[in-house]
Specification:
The protein has 252 residues and is of the alpha/beta class. It contains seven helices and twelve strands. Helix 1 (49-59) crosses helix 6 and helix 6 (211-226) packs antiparallel against helix 7. Strand 2 and strand 3 (35-48) form a beta hairpin. Strands 4-1-7-8-9-10-11-12 form an eight-stranded mixed β-sheet, with helices on both faces.
């Protein structure tokens, strides 16, 4: 199915710059038991909500990104030959400010709203509730514990660890609605929705960073083609499987 020309996605959430600094480690420091890192080259990408945005655009969906001022930077120091990460340095999270200026009229100008909430301060629960209550098609990926603030969303994408953290609270509140909307990603184990497991091909994994963002983008893209969440699950798995075979954060 071809996309309608009027289709457009809004991605809302925290963004960062993912910096990969690749180098060589051939000896230990003489004054401390740590490797000496010699930088070779650097690779920068939009991360978090910015990565979801770039993947959707790459797949052919016109999109708008509403995010922070990109003050957040995640710098990874990686040994080039082995692809082993030695250190990650995060900065700028303290400068993230809360989103403002969101209106019902603005939301309704988009076919779908994709919430990519890394819980850095750009989105509060009340903001997510407002979005879900004022748009008919909302996909959520949040690092917050799931609660009734996202009850009116369409689907919740969540990884297995986040699901474990949310599971007890959800059950304590008898939130059956949440279980019916949750799409749980299992890494190399694939994903689960509506009691069905969607397996993935076994491949050599080089880097899982950003794979969840790619999964979310693929899910939204395929769903917009025919509103078939089951086909969307299969396509999202394929997208995530493709990017984990590459170094760093990559766009599908």
């Amino acid at each position: 199915m071809e996309f309608q020309s009027s289709m457009k996605a809004l991605i809302i959430g925290d963004s960062c710059t993912d910096v990969y600094l690749y180098g060589n480690c051939q000896r230990l420091c003489p004054d401390a038991p740590v490797p000496v890192f010699v930088p070779l080259y650097q690779k920068d990408n939009k991360g978090m909500a910015g990565n979801v945005y770039q993947n959707l655009v790459s797949l052919g969906i016109p999109a708008v990104l509403k995010t922070n001022n990109n003050a957040v930077v995640k710098t990874r120091y990686v040994e080039e030959k082995t692809n082993h990460m030695l250190l990650r340095v995060d900065s700028g999270e303290e400068r993230v400010t809360r989103m403002s200026g969101l209106t019902v009229e603005f939301l309704k100008s988009f076919t779908v709203v994709v919430i990519s909430d890394y819980n850095k301060g750009f989105l509060h629960k009340e903001d997510i509730r407002f979005i879900c209550e004022n748009h008919p098609l909302v996909f959520i990926d949040t690092k917050k514990i799931i609660g009734d603030y996202c009850k009116e969303c369409s689907y919740i994408k969540i990884n297995s660890e986040e699901h474990r953290k949310s599971f007890e609270e959800i059950n304590n509140q008898s939130e059956e609605w949440a279980n019916k909307k949750m799409i749980v990603t299992l890494g190399s184990g694939g994903s689960v929705f509506d009691g069905k497991k969607y397996s993935v091909s076994q491949v050599e994994i080089k880097d899982t960073s950003g794979a969840g963002d790619t999964f979310l983008a693929g899910l939204v893209y395929e769903y917009l083609k025919g509103e078939d969440i089951y086909k969307a699950m299969e396509f999202a798995n394929k997208c995530a499987t493709k990017v984990v075979q590459m170094k760093g954060v990559n766009v599908i």
